Amino acid sequence: xxxxxxxxxxxxxxxxxxxxxxxxxxxxxxxxxxxxxxxxxxxxxxxxxxxxxxxxxxxxxxxxxxxxxxxxxxxxxxxxxxxxxxxxxxxxxxxxxxxxxxxxxxxxxxxxxxxxxxxxxxxxxxxxxxxxxxxxxxxxxxxxxxxxxxxxxxxxxxxxxxxxxxxxx
Length: 169
Hints:
disordered C terminus, Thrombin, subunit H, four-stranded antiparallel beta sheet
């Protein structure tokens, strides 16, 4: 008998995010992503709600309006500068840059455009202003162990891998 996703269940899944309008795949997570349902939900609340009651082998599609999750695009978070003012280690599209304002607040920006003279960074979440579809495949549903519940997620034997998983979530 197959178990259904509910609070306290350990769940592993893979997913991809597709732009609803262009059908372009924005990101794919092919390695199993594990979490404990109802305890350390790692995706948007509406996705976790749609996962409720589902079981191993099911593939579901969940439409998400990026504006509802991340708010509308804020063009004041887009900056273009002379490339010579940007350290060489940041001169690649897709690079993440953590910046701090004069009040000590940090914010992540991504390099989105670059040419011979300029570089543009964007502090908006890449899903802002987009309608996307999360396609999720459920791989595992089982009772979480006490150790997993205490840890807030999957237990990995290698401590470095465990820390990397926590940072990625």
